[in-house]
User: Fold this.
Amino acid sequence: MAGTTSNNDGDIGFQIAPMIDLILVLMVFFMTTVALKQVENELGIGLPGTSMGDTDAHATVDMHIEIDVDGAVTMNGDSVGEPRDKQLDKLRDKLKEQIELFDDRIPVVIIPQPNVPHRRVIDVLNACSAAKVKNISFNGT
Assistant:
């Protein structure tokens, strides 16, 4: 036995179990991030200079929502939101009333003044979404 040598250098070979665990963790991570993806463009927003492609009898009846720099919101000249009113309940009610009279494809034109905070434009978009407005466009001044 004096001439026998042992080749036990600690090499245990390639372990597949940790690789499978890593693949499963990555799959769970990507599946959860895809499930949390928020769908955009639900409101049918048209950019200035573009048309929505829908020209119907209701195109003559449209609603102009103006947003002042201080945050006040008016619709066709009537005040529908105070600067501190984040929910814009009065705007939502007027939009729902107009949609019941005509339909959800009635054009709504949002006209923000220059330097209006983006969060105020988002408040108006949220009010339009809550009223189920489908035809929204922007017009700059």
Summary: Residues 52-59 have pLDDT under 50 and may be disordered. DSSP finds three helices and six strands in the chain.
